[in-house]
Design brief:
The chain has about 90 residues and is an all-alpha fold. The chain is built from 4 helices and no strands. The chain starts with about 25 loop residues before the first helix and ends in an 11-residue tail after the last helix. The protein is about 50% helix and about 0% strand.
């Protein structure tokens, strides 16, 4: 069953990939599963949340203005020279 609504994440391109493991809240996993079901319904191709996550993250990073400014030549040069330190997390 196809719908006329368009999702922010369009049809998925074929890409070279590596395996990355992360932990997320149960509620986020449920939302990702629902999004995957809607994506499959919209575009007629079965897909799961694990397949969608890299595309979602890529779209997020591509739209981040602050990140784009740091990537641009001459943009944010003082901050670009600093190492990015991961924040400590509690488990």
């Amino acid at each position: 069953m196809s719908t006329t609504r368009k999702l922010r994440l369009g049809p998925l391109p074929k890409i070279e990939s590596i395996k990355l493991t992360f932990v997320c809240p149960v509620s986020l996993k449920a939302d990702l599963d629902r999004y995957a079901a809607l994506h499959a319904q919209t575009y007629g191709e079965a897909v799961d949340a694990v397949t969608l996550v890299p595309h979602m993250l890529e779209a997020f990073v591509a739209k981040d203005r602050g990140f784009k400014a740091l990537k641009a030549p001459g943009g944010g040069s003082a901050r670009r020279d600093q190492q990015v330190r991961p924040r400590a997390t509690q488990e």
